[in-house]
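user: can you give me the structure for this one chain? tokens are fine.
assistant: on it. calling the predictor now.
[tool input]
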Amino acid sequence: MDKVKIESFKAIGISVRTTNKNGQGAKDIGNLWGRFMNEKIAEAIPNKIDNTVYSIYTGYESDHTAPYTTILGCRVANLDDVPEGMIGKSIEGGDYIKLSAKGDLTKGLIADKWAEIWNMDLNRVFTADFEVYGAKAQNPENAEVDIYIAVK
């Protein structure tokens, strides 16, 4: 676990409003991923910086127990051209804790890591947290995903 400074960035993708109550978040985010892959959303995002996929958690009503928005998308150079049905978001920079999840994405790797994060004393600010699915996450059965948690 490392404390890092993140520069602000912009992203475009698709989103869902959800909650972690009764496992709803896992279901809704799983469906969002299905849509992202099946509809080839990454290919339709304009002004992409690269093909890295970001899963961004933002718009928290209070903390991880209340509703929030998940955005699946890519970093972009600007938000000048947000396609219909997609959302553009500027993510503020700041202090983050960087964690990594390593293992099989098909066996609940990320959900298990979040359950661990929710029980950590991290002094979270609940502005925007995100996962980064880059080159190390291309093999779902042996993936490495970096997770960034906004902190004070």
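assistant: here you go. The chain is about 20% helix and 40% strand. The first strand starts at residue 2 and ends at 6.
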